[in-house]
Write a structure and sequence with these properties.
The complex is a heterodimer of chains A (303) and B (296). Chain A is mainly α. Chain A folds into 2 domains: 2-42; 70-302, MetI-like (MetI-like fold). Chain A has 13 helices and 2 strands; from the N terminus they run H-H-H-E-E-H-H-H-H-H-H-H-H-H-H. Chain B folds into 2 domains: 1-39, no CATH class; 44-292, Rossmann fold (3-Layer(aba) Sandwich), CATH 3.40.50. In chain B, 39% of the residues lie in helices and 22% in strands. Chain B is built from 12 helices and 10 strands. Chain B has helices spanning 2-16, 30-38, 88-95, 125-131, 146-156, 162-175, 179-182, 195-207, 225-238, 251-257, 275-280, 285-291, and strands at 50-59, 62-72, 77-81, 105-113, 116-117, 132-135, 213-217, 243-247, 260-265, 268-274. In chain B, the strands form 2 sheets. Chain B has a 6-stranded mixed beta sheet, with helices on both faces. In chain B, strands 2-1-4-5 form a 4-stranded antiparallel beta sheet, covered by helices on one side. In chain B, strand 7, helix 9 and strand 8 form a beta-alpha-beta unit. Classes of the chains: A mainly alpha (303), B alpha/beta (296). The A-B interface holds A 105, 182, 184-195, 198, 202-203, 206-207, 301-303 and B 96, 98, 101, 103, 126-127, 129-130, 132-134, 136, 138, 140, 142-145, 152-153, 156-157, 188-192, 202, 205-206, 209. The complex binds adenosine-5'-triphosphate and magnesium ion. The site of magnesium ion (MG) has 3 residues of chain B, from helix 3.
Chain lengths: 303, 296
């Protein structure tokens, strides 16, 4: 007899566990589909009135006249996110390389908890700090060198505040990733006479490239969706920003600012739902694209 | 650099033409060649390659190496044996100053390589490490192709000539007895090789920086018997031109290939001497017990 009752019971538990986990996985995937679909149905009335293309490429936003152009908001979102990643990523990579490869354990002991604290500060605090520090700095110190006038409430301010907000997240992920690289690999490189920096460049960064991409994806997704802190400092004017010192109006800010009055005008509610749907789709496209890049990297660099 | 290059290429040429080697026997006498190769080297300790004087190492306040005095013979295989935790790896890592990468390390005493104190302020740590190729217990290919693994050392030391690099890669892969197995897939990832192949790759990678000393930390313990025999044979071939220091847990391996044996116990060198002395006529009771397998 190969199957004792005890074995049977264990096999049953195993398959039960598998089924439950499968169910939960399907459920969470289903949630995303449900969110997407309901956004689509809620925004369908505006899609009947206007063509999708005119909505996406239109620049004028006058809800009381029935004009809904999302182009400035899409650009606002992309600007703020791009600026924040552009600022945050190099800083984060260098910081985490320093912390994991060079820093004395003593420094690590002090800095790691600090990073966690930074990650725990609520967005609204970052927003207030942005208004008090970043906005005046841009309007008084930085912008005069480049443009005639800037109120300081700009996509740059949004990008900087957002960068500072997502940095702790990226740094702690990167540190985890670097820590996961075996010490022997570094020793192998060092014992061939490589310097620390050569080892980091050619071995550590290379080995952790997929992880770094994954960290960027997470950070960007977070940045796309971040609302309050950005809304407080980026000016919220529905025009396409022409420079980093212009105001912008990202999609999440649009939704949050106008949510209260969305029933007041015809199609307004539907337009805001469409804004949410656009944000949803941007994040989906971004994630799909990064997935493709990730497999490319893994294949190309043979990791 | 050029003379060294020439030298190592000669070795490779001669070690690969097994059977046709001029200063080995006449053609076709392969069995005889093997026995000749496996012959023990005559030890000359008047000019040791590495000389350790009063070395004390503390790791995190723990006294790991206690007053080690030791001479490592030139162009011979030295095996370091001893029970687990006695400080063999630590000793090996002080030789190429890799130990300093760990936290809270205190090193006192002197290690002379070719008469130079490696802990001298004027010594470039990179030059020390270049002098020694390290083979770790588990093979550790770098996350790149087979070709790039071998070319890594020459490249970081400034060799960018692709033609020369390909030549080096071929030569050292041949020296490590891996060329025939990988010559058609030089640009595929190194980590797809079998473990035994990976270890030979690591050996080739270490040889490519033209070291004078090869350090092996249980370099064959993760390998199957055939792969480890291959590596052992390579060591025996290579000892004509390199000084080889091997940490090993298998006494039988030490018996097979060691010319010089160092027995360590709890951070101290108990006894060091030629393989014959240590295995057949140990002076210390502790050595005798360890050799006879009374403890391990
Ligand atoms: N980083 C470290 N911090 C503190 N103690 C250490 C450290 N590395 C090694 N040790 C201690 O030093 C002693 C010697 O370690 P080592 O690794 O040199 O032993 P070993 O002879 O190589 O053993 P094995 O045969 O098991 O590899 C051990 O007692 C070990 O616990
Ligand atoms: Mg060891």
């Amino acid at each position: 007899m190969i199957f004792g009752t005890h074995t049977k019971y264990r096999v049953f538990k195993d398959s039960l566990a598998r089924r439950i986990m499968l169910g939960l996985t399907v459920f969470s995937l289903l949630l995303a589909v449900i969110v997407g679909l309901s956004l689509y149905f809620k925004s369908s009335s505006i899609l009947h009135e206007h063509s999708l293309w005119s909505l996406l490429s239109g620049s004028s936003w006058r809800p009381f006249k029935g004009e809904f152009g999302f182009y400035p908001f899409i650009m606002g979102t992309l600007w703020v996110t791009a600026i924040s990643i552009f600022i945050a990523l190099p800083l984060c990579i260098l910081t985490s390389i320093f912390l994991s490869e060079y820093a004395h354990p003593y420094i690590k002991k002090i800095v790691f908890p600090l990073i966690d604290i930074l990650a725990g500060i609520p967005p609204v605090v970052y927003g207030v700090w942005g208004i008090l520090v970043v906005v005046p700095f841009i309007s008084e110190k930085l912008a005069p060198h480049f443009v005639e006038f800037s109120s300081g409430y700009s996509v740059l301010a949004g990008g900087i505040v957002l960068a500072i907000m997502i940095m702790p997240l990226i740094i702690s992920i990167l540190i985890e990733i670097f820590a996961a690289i075996p010490k022997e690999l570094r020793d192998a490189s060092l014992s061939l006479g490589a310097t620390n920096w050569q080892t980091v460049k050619f071995v550590v960064l290379r080995k952790s490239l997929p992880g770094i991409v994954a960290a960027i994806v997470l950070a960007v997704s977070r940045a796309f969706g971040e609302t309050i802190a950005v809304l407080m400092v980026c000016g919220n004017m529905s025009a396409v920003p022409k420079s980093v010192f212009d105001s912008g109006y990202p999609l999440p800010a649009l939704i949050a600012n106008n949510y209260g009055e969305m029933m007041s005008l015809p199609l307004y509610d539907s337009a805001l739902m469409l804004a949410a749907l656009i944000l949803f789709v941007i994040i989906l496209i971004f994630n799909a694209a990064s997935r493709i890049i990730l497999t490319r990297i893994e294949r190309r660099f043979a990791l | 650099m050029n003379t060294r290059l020439l030298k190592s290429e000669n070795i490779i040429a001669s070690s690969m033409n097994n059977g046709k080697d001029v200063f080995l026997l006449e053609e076709g006498a392969e069995a005889q060649v093997r026995t000749l190769l496996l012959q023990k080297t005559k030890l000359d300790l008047t000019a040791p390659h590495i000389s350790v004087k009063n070395l004390n190492v503390h790791l995190q306040k723990k006294h790991v190496l206690k007053d080690v005095n030791l001479d490592i013979p030139n162009k011979a295989i030295t095996c370091i044996i001893g029970p687990s935790g006695c400080g063999k790896t630590t000793l090996l890592k002080t030789f190429n100053r890799l130990l300093e990468q760990s936290v809270d390390v205190k090193i006192d005493g002197h290690v002379f390589v070719d008469g130079e104190d490696i802990h001298d302020k004027n010594v470039e740590i990179i030059n020390i490490r270049k002098k020694m190729g390290l083979l770790s217990q588990r093979p550790c290919p770098l996350p790149m192709s087979i070709f790039d693994n071998i070319a890594y050392g020459p490249r970081i030391h400034g060799n960018r000539n692709m033609k020369e690099l390909s030549r080096l890669v071929e030569n050292y892969l041949k020296a490590a007895g891996l060329w025939d197995e990988v010559k058609d897939r030089l640009h595929s990832p190194a980590n797809r090789l079998s473990i035994g192949q990976q270890q030979r790759l690591c050996l080739a990678r270490g040889l490519a920086v033209e070291p004078e000393i090869i350090l092996g930390d249980e370099a064959t313990s993760a390998l199957d018997p055939i792969s480890s025999k291959k590596i052992e044979e390579l060591f025996v071939e290579l000892k004509r031109d390199y000084s080889i220091i091997l940490v090993t847990h298998t006494l039988r391996q030490a018996r097979r290939i060691a010319d010089y044996v160092v027995f360590m116990y709890l951070g101290e060198v108990i006894e060091a001497g030629s393989a014959d002395e240590i295995f057949n006529n140990p002076q210390k009771e502790l050595t005798r017990e360890y050799i006879s397998g009374a403890f391990s």
